């Protein structure tokens, strides 16, 4: 189900908290993960999305603990988590 504008919480990884005033949890609004991310402070958005609006390659998204994409629909009260991708090798 798609909700047009909903209040959600975004969990920010430690490495990006300097762009969220040091906060690990930031309120956001949006019907999709992309919309919620775009409602965040501009400095944080610039570190999460590239110039073309794509998720940066070193990041992953989860919604309520499940893998997500920028187009994942968000329900009211959802937890959108920005996760730093692990390096393999």
Strand order of the main beta sheet, please? Answer: 2-1-5-3-4
Largest sheet properties: 5 strands, mixed
Count of DSSP helices?
A: 2
Number of strands: 5
The helix-and-strand class reads alpha+beta
Instruction: Assign the CATH superfamily.
Output: Beta-grasp domain
Model description:
This protein is an alpha+beta fold. The chain is built from two helices and five strands; from the N terminus they run E-E-H-H-E-E-E. Strand 3 (59-63) and strand 4 form a beta hairpin. It has a single domain, classed as Beta-grasp domain (Ubiquitin-like (UB roll), Roll). The chain is globular and about 25 Å long. It has a five-stranded mixed beta sheet. Helix content is 15%, strand content 27%.
Short summary of the structure?
This protein is an alpha+beta fold.
For this entry, give a set of tags.
single chain, 89 residues, alpha+beta, Ubiquitin-like (UB roll), five-stranded mixed sheet
Write the layout of secondary structure elements.
Layout: E1 7-11, E2 25-29, H1 33-38, H2 42-48, E3 59-63, E4 66-68, E5 79-84
Parallel strand pairs: 1-5
Antiparallel strand pairs: 1-2, 3-4, 3-5
């Amino acid at each position: 189900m798609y909700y047009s504008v909903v209040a959600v919480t975004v969990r920010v990884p430690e490495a990006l908290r300097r762009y969220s005033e040091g906060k690990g949890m930031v309120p956001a609004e949006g019907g999709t993960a992309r919309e919620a991310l775009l409602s965040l402070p501009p400095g944080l958005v610039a570190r999460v999305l590239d110039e073309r609006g794509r998720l940066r390659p070193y990041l992953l998204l989860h919604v309520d603990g499940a893998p997500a994409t920028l187009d994942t629909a968000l329900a009211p009260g959802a937890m959108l988590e920005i996760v730093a991708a692990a390096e393999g090798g």
